[in-house]
Amino acid sequence: MPSLGADMEAGRLVEWMIAPGDTVHRGDVVAAVETQKGAIEIEVFQDGTVQELLADLGQELPVGAPLAVILGEGEAPSEAVPTPKPAPGAAPKPEQTTLTPEPEAAKQPVGQPVPPPTPPAAPEPTPTVPEAARKPAAQPVPPVAPATPGALRISPAARALAAERGVDLASLKGSGPGGAILYADVEHAAKPATQKTSSPLAEMRKAIAAAMTRSKQTIPHFYLSETIDVDPAIAFLEARNADLPPAERVLLGALFIRATVLAAQQVPAINGHYTDEAGFKPSDMVNPGIAIALRGGGLVAPALRDASGMTLDETMAGMRDLVTRARAGRLRASEMTQGTITISSLGETGAESMTGVIFPPQVAIVGIGAPHLRPWVVEGAVVPRHVVTLTLSADHRVSDGRVAAKFIAAFEELMQKPEAL
Amino acid sequence: MTSSDKIRLDRAHVLDLLGHMIRIRRFEDKCAEMYTQEKIRGFLHLYDGEEAIAAGVIPLLTEKDRIVATYREHGHALVRGVPMTGVMAEMYGKRSGCSGGRGGSMHLFDAERNFYGGNAIVGGGLPLAGGLALADRMMGTGGVTACFFGEGAVAEGEFHETMNLAELWDLPVLFVCENNGYAMGTALARSESQTDIHAKAAAYGVESQVVDGMNVVEVERAARRALASMRETGRPVLLECRTYRFRAHSMFDAQLYRDKAEIEEWRSKGPIVRFQGWLLENGLIHDSDVADLTAKIDAEIAEAVAFAEAAEWESVEDLTTHVLGPQPEPPAPTQPSGETVEITYREAVKQGIRDAMLRDERVFMMGEDVGAYGGCYAVSKGLMAEFGEDRIRDTPLSESGFTGAGIGAAAAGMRPIVELMTVNFSLLALDQIMNTAATIRHMSGGQFGVPVVIRMATGAGKQLAAQHSHSLEGWYGHIPGLKVLAPATVEDARGMLWTALQDPDPVLIFENVMLYNRTGMLDTAAGAVDITRAAVRRAGKDLSLITYGGSLWKTLEAAEELAKDGIEAEVIDLRSLRPLDDETIMASVAKTRRAVIVDEGWKTGSISAEIAARIMEQAFWSLDGPVGRVCSAEVPIPYPKHLEDASIPQVPAIVAAARGQMGR
User: Fold this and answer.
1) Contact B124, B106 (CB under 8 A)
2) Domains B3-311 and B340-523 share a fold
3) N or C: which end of chain B has fewer CB within 10 A?
4) CA distance B77 to B115
5) How many Å from the N-terminal Cα to the C-terminal Cα in chain A?
């Protein structure tokens, strides 16, 4: 069970997309997991053949629990295939790959979308369960801790307290002899009272709240706004979309993404990640996180990976895909963590301006209000024009007003020549 | 020959004698019948043919005299006056039986009539009888104890030990050997080099005589003479009554060991047929007398059967009543004076004994070398000079004999302290401790208790090798009916004894040999201490170290070591191994969630295993890990120091076990 964010302790397996014997390649989506942030697709980071599925659908599994065994090319199937029943932890051999947290995706998050939270300094999502404890968590715990070496050991006192307080033992790291989970471990884990009954939506709101609070508490935000004439863009889109079916039309939002990506390329100081340990690291790629409102509330901001080389149509297609999958609850883990700068556009919803809260560890968010028809001065005369108000929220630890102004100027200029986007 | 020797064979007396015998015979015929109807179960040993002995001896005893009988004792109980209803109900196993239904045919008891059973360990009744007589002698009651036993018992050491003690100490015991020629199915000549039993007694200087056990007048005459002599001299007498049992040993006996002709020959000279015939021939009685007698007896038997049939069963809820006597309140803690003196454990034990001797004249101590020698471990040095040879009583090396004597004396009202030199020797007294002391209260339906205290040394460390060094106190902890103490501190060494002497039940006190020279500070006002609770000797939160006796000090030392590593161990001194103070143990384990038991006994089947099991039963859900144990290596304790040290729990092993619990 991969860690999809530092706040994630466990996930519920809701779909297998592979079966034993299937060939998989790095990047393939192999399973879907429901988390407190919604359903997320799990990618595999290895090429190989699926030897065995270890987890059953519907199981609530702690981060670090093996989900499947995948044999690399030339690897022999292990005799001691880990079955989740008696002592699954004993199983995965070093040469085998298990779907455990992937360092690339989890240890060094390359981007974070706006609402789904990650702390500014993403803590090491080292599996919190000892090697011995890596087993499907929702397995009914045997009445007595198995004597098998390597099996999950839970003291009776720990078991009793966990039952009383509703603590998931499999998510704990044992501090006792042989990694046994002791009373004190459960006591420690039980302190922040777990809330099992709230809805996924409430969970998401809670996660957003936590991330936003952290952001506002730790990031010294500053804001620059500019009103931008979008008539050229609207005219361009009307002409371009004139004879196309709705599915092929390009939306204003896609132009905003293109403009953000290209402007960010010019101003690297607002594109990247800031962590307490490493300070600011500008990103070579621009992975724009696109804030997507979900039906029923909540927000996600999956990223388009390496969007600078995309055409407008590709950008539009990518955007559509993300929206569709976000609303279907089928985003991929990497998409949730790769964002380097976020764009939040209110579209037609009316408000004039939007001042966003930066999603850590990113350092900037572009907020764009709804287009409004306003008096506009063109060559000394007042004319009606469609304008939007752009507000850049930026991290003062990384950038300053000058840098921000440079980004806004670049964005505005790009929006005046939409055909070049 | 005094006047009491003479038998007046008047009509009333001969009818009494005949009546006793016919009553026994007809009662037992009914018992056999009821047995075949499954009303009576277990073993049923019939007295058929031997009735003249009980009938001849028992009516001569006074009310204060005592009787110890065997498992073939229906006749003795009936002649002594135990109501037939109670005897029959007992055989039915009913609540209103004379032993509350708990004893059955082999264990008839009646405290009111000083009828001490009903003892089914062949030979086991003799030391008990010796002890009852010892009490009578020490208390000066003038009472005697009649001890009945079969000739099979003379092969047991307990017979010889008791013969010796009785003669040595002038114990007023009338030993009545009912020699019916067969120990179960083994003829006397098959099992004894010397078949003249009276000669065996004579070898100990016990006055003895052969009596025709088939002739009630002869038996009475001999018994009358013996009792008269005993009441005069206080010395024991043995009557070897030669008799024959017409029926099988017990109901399930094919009698392959003897001919029918032999039985028939004896039957023809049976005690009833002979006596009745003689009385009729001589016109002392008439046929109608026999008919009247028989009718009366049959009516009594019918009433007894009806009574037993109608009687209620003991309720299962009362199963464990009478295992222990009424439990006394623990002594009130003494107010410390604040003034303490340094004292050795040995001296503390001695002070406890001396204190008890001064406070209660019923208290006396006996054992091997406790008197002139001053005690093997010098515990009683000087006490004989202070209290005299009667109350500090040297014994022969007869562990069963003198332990049984202590048990008998306690049952008769004394408060004996029996010292066994070392726990290994106590095994020679195990029959008396287990089959009599621990058992008699329950077996008698709560009528008899044994408030004896038995002290002994235990444990290794003195290079005394494999027959003087073991720690078997855990074994004794297995036995219901006993209390088992292990004082580790000078306070307990001094204070447990008095409390133990107030207890209605047998209390065993185990003194670890390595503690005698150990000193401790004792309050000058120290007195009796509670013997029911364990003590927390050191408080801690990380793990519980549960121990007792000699291992306490090693465990405290280990706790000190552990404290250097920041591990705070709680040390529990069990103090009592039976009963175990579960409450204190579980409270500690619930707090620390980890336990290591330190026990100088062997691990297998030990008290440490019992404690571990109880923790599983009662505190499993409090545990953070498996219960650990540090016990003796499973070897007979060897002689060389380094091997002996390696055999028993030592500080490093305790520290290691504790660290293991903590995962360090």
Assistant:
1) no
2) yes
3) N
4) 7
5) 40
In this structure, which amino acid lies at residue A302?
Answer: P
Q: How far apart are CA B531 and CA B520, in angstroms?
A: 20
Cα–Cα distances (Å) from B118 to B101, B128, B440, in that order, read 13, 12, 10
Return the DSSP state at A249.
Answer: P
* A362/A119 Cα distance (integer angstroms): 11
Tell me the chain B residues in contact with residue A183 when contact means C-beta distances shorter than 8 Å.
593, 624
Residue B363 has pLDDT above 60, yes or no: yes
CA separation for the pair A405, A247 (Å, rounded)? 35
φ/ψ of A378, rounded to 5, equals -125, 120
Nearest CB to A176 within list B620, B621, B663? B663
pLDDT in tens, A302-344: 999 999 889 999 999 999 999 888 887 778 877 888 899 999 9
Output DSSP code: residue B479: S
SS3 B158: helix
Angle (CA) B442 B447 B450, round 5°: 75
Beta-bridge partner residues of A377: A382
Tally A–B CB contacts below 8 A. Answer: 37
Cα–Cα dist B515/A137, whole Å: 54
Give A86-129 as a 3 state SS string.
CCHHHCCCCCCEECCCCHHHHHCCCCCCCCCCCCCCCCCCCCCC
Distance from CA of A98 to the nearest CA of B (A): 29
How far does B536 lie from chain A, in Å, by closest CA? 22
pLDDT digits over B407-446, tens only? 999 999 999 999 999 999 999 999 999 999 999 999 999 9
pTM for the model stands at 0.68
In B, which residues are within 8 Å of A177 by CB distance?
A: 625, 660-663
Token output for B584: 């204190």
Closest alpha carbon to A46 in A63, A69, A64: A69
What CATH number labels B537-661?
3.40.50.920
**In angstroms, what CA-CA distances link A353 with A286, A350, B362?**
24, 9, 105
Q: What is the pLDDT of residue A337?
A: 81
Q: How far is B318 from chain A (nearest CA, A)?
A: 35
What lies within 8 Å, CB to CB, of B203 at 6+ separation is: none
Q: Which CATH superfamily is domain B340-523 in?
A: Thiamin diphosphate (ThDP)-binding fold, Pyr/PP domains (3.40.50.970)
Sorted by where each starts, the structural domains of chain A and their CATH numbers stand as: 10-197 (2.40.50.100), 219-420 (3.30.559.10)
Query: Which secondary structure element, helix H or strand E, spans residue A69, and what is its range?
Result: strand A68-71
Structure tokens at A139: 């397995």
CB B649 within 8 A of CB B551: yes
User: How many H-runs (helices) and E-runs (strands) does chain A carry?
Assistant: 8, 19
List CB contacts of B161: < 8 A, sequence separation 6 or more: B126, B127, B396, B398, B400, B401, B402
Report the CATH number of the B3-311 domain.
Answer: 3.40.50.970
Tell me the pLDDT tens digit for each residue of B94-141: 999 999 999 999 999 999 999 999 999 999 999 999 999 999 999 999
Rg over CA atoms, chain B: 28
Task: Give the tokens for residue A301.
Answer: 């901001």
Query: Other C-beta atoms within 10 Å of B456: how many?
Result: 23
